[in-house]
Hints:
Elements: E1 3-4, H1 17-35, H2 40-54, E2 57-66, E3 71-78, E4 81-88, H3 92-100, E5 103-106, H4 118-123, E6 130-136, E7 142-151, H5 158-201, H6 207-221, E8 224-233, E9 238-241, E10 252-255, H7 259-267, E11 271-273, H8 285-290, E12 297-303, E13 309-318, H9 325-364, E14 368-372, E15 378-381, H10 383-388, H11 393-396, H12 401-404, H13 411-422, E16 426-435, E17 438-451, E18 456-466, H14 469-478, H15 483-490, H16 494-499, E19 501-512, H17 515-544, E20 548-553, E21 556-561, H18 570-594, E22 602-618, E23 621-627, H19 629-643, E24 648-651, H20 652-656, E25 664-671, E26 679-684, H21 696-711, H22 715-728, H23 733-747, E27 757-759
Parallel strand pairs: 1-5, 22-24, 25-27
Antiparallel strand pairs: 2-3, 2-7, 3-4, 5-6, 6-7, 8-9, 8-13, 9-10, 11-12, 12-13, 14-15, 14-18, 16-17, 17-18, 19-21, 19-22, 20-21, 22-23, 24-26, 25-26
Helix pairs in contact: 1-2, 1-5, 2-5, 5-6, 6-9, 14-15, 17-18, 21-22, 22-23
Amino acid sequence: MSAEGVSPKKKKRKGTKDERLKRSQILLDVTRRCASLANIQDVWKELVSMTSYELDCDRGTLFLNDTETNELFSFVAQGNLTREIRILNDSGIAGHVYQTGQAKISDDPYNDPLFNHEVDQRTGYTTRNVACVPVRTMAGDKIGVMQTLNKRAGEFNLDDLELLEDMTTQAAVVLQGLQHYEQIDKIREKENAFLKLMSDINSEFELSRMLMRVVQEITAMLSAERATIFMYDQSTETLFSRVSAGGEINEIRFPSHMGIAGEVFTSGKSMNIPHAYADLRFNPSFDKQTGFFTRSILCVPIVNNDNDAIGVTQVLNKKGGVFSDDDEQRLKAFTAQISISLQNSKLFDDVQRIKEYNESMLQSMSNGVVTMDPKGEVVTCNTAALKIWEADESDFVGKNLEGLLDEDGKWVLEQIDKVKIENSIQQISDTTVSLFGTSKTVNLTIMPLVAAEEDKELGSMMMFEDISSEKRMKSTMSRYMDPVIAAQMMEGDAHEVLGGVSAEATVMFTDVRGFTTITEEYGAQGTVSFLNDYFSLMVDCISREGGMLDKFIGDAIMACFGLPIPHDDDPDRAMRASIGMIKTLWEWNQERIENGLKVVDMGIGLNTDMVVSGNIGSPKRMDYTLIGDGVNLAARLESACKSYAARILVSDSTVQKLKGTYRMRAVDLVVVKGKTQPVKIHEVLDYHDQSSFPNLMDVVNLFNDGIEAYRVANWSKAIERFNHCLKLNPSDQLSKNYVDRCEFLRANPPEKEWDGVWVMTSK
């Protein structure tokens, strides 16, 4: 036997005959008592109990090696329950002994670099000494380690190590046999569950119930905490799920390329991730929303007979460890078997959805719709048509259209006949139709109804878009103010909207870089033309996300997300709009380069806070706008983009309220002009690709490490991290700025206690 960490005074002494006899008896007891036990956990407890007694120590732990995960695992009793614990097989004293195969005594663990202090800190236990030996079979194969702590009298010696190693060797035969038995039993149980599932799976055709059954079976079959099946929706290019075993989840959707599931779907390759948060592709936003903590992930594609991916199966948190290769192969086999059933269920679900959509579409349309059979008898009319003509359904359905039209409206019948003859669509704008003695100004569309497969006439359909005086007024007002505000005023909420409202909103400020140079170069007419083109592109990005354009300030834009109409994701809308603005600007710059024009750059600031909105001004000139500290901070952040060489800066208050996940980095903790409290700000980098920002996520991680070092005044470490960022992306000006700042602070240490706060002296 070889051992490390043993002083010369601890040399093994030659035992007496009685002592050797006693040792033989101990080893015989180990064999007898372990062999009488039926499961591995009982053997575990018995061996720990016997070794602790014979070595006269406080406690002991037996670790066995998991060859699939390269982890040492043991069992810990918690009341009436037993919990499995795992550590890497190269970690701590136990890992060292397992890797080297050499027994070890540590008389001063707290000064031993191999010792892990965290366990003692967590439990309050004080480890005085440690004896640890490898567990070998009779054939000499290592299967784990045995560790004993705190010898009650004196210290551990070589005799203790030899006894400990001999006792574990005696028990190893039983442990190995029980391991093999349990493995065979688990395989048998898994196969039975699989066969049962496959016999039942085809009996369920409704998609939601089928998905629920499938994820429940997968969760049990793989001993996981949660499973989810994501199906592909080709119409929206999204992955969606309606059920998840282990928690209540409504339907969720996300782009089919996003996250781990998106990566598996697009690549068609399985992923087995033992540590989710260590993988940059993992999206932690769902964990934040649900409170669930994802440790390990197994995700495989679902492929149909044409080898096309139709979804993915994702399983989370293997109980007692990580997912094995065997788990992955069984999940692949399972998904291959159910792929046809899943596809059929989805097709059935799609048909049902189309049916429900067709039935509800007419009722949900804002335009009035009336359908007639070939004889002109009204078959259906939607709610909007009843509202437009101030009629009941009984006034329409079952009545011939000719009898409903006033004399001034008989021309409609001629247009219907024309549509039938020509089999074409007639659109008549801004016309007057009279029904039931009521005249309305409408946009009228008449179209034939034909059975596509049989080319058989089914009748005709009229669609009315009411463009009465109220809607004409709304259209006029929308030219002079935000369409959303105009809509609310038309609905009678003008006083509430314009009188003053305090609400949480995300404020956006944008500004063109180098605008003075542009005005000098282009002249008055050229500058106006440039601004019109630029504003058109930017405002479209804001409008697409439901933002409200507040005003133009020279070349600057002020916009708001959350007022006057709030949404539950206004910060995300502002983020998406900002990212879209930068991407749109870059596309526009390509056109400008092709036309021999200079490129344009911009800065964007976002802040979420309580703001006041209302109609502000004099009786002769009023302006609907926003005021408050939250507005001022957004403006300061936009201005700060210049100092930080950034295009999008957002406050921490905005980041904390985001529902989606974006590529960002913490930029600074600053006190802006006119404020006393520091504000944490972040740079958004989601508009970049590999060409515009090489090695982005590596730079972000290194930069964040540098910021942490900077905030504790570790200038050298911070400089090293920022310089590493520059090696990965030499164009990262922010990292260069921080190298310069840290070098200055290292040469000129702050007089006061450093708190990482930077005071901005400019607006």
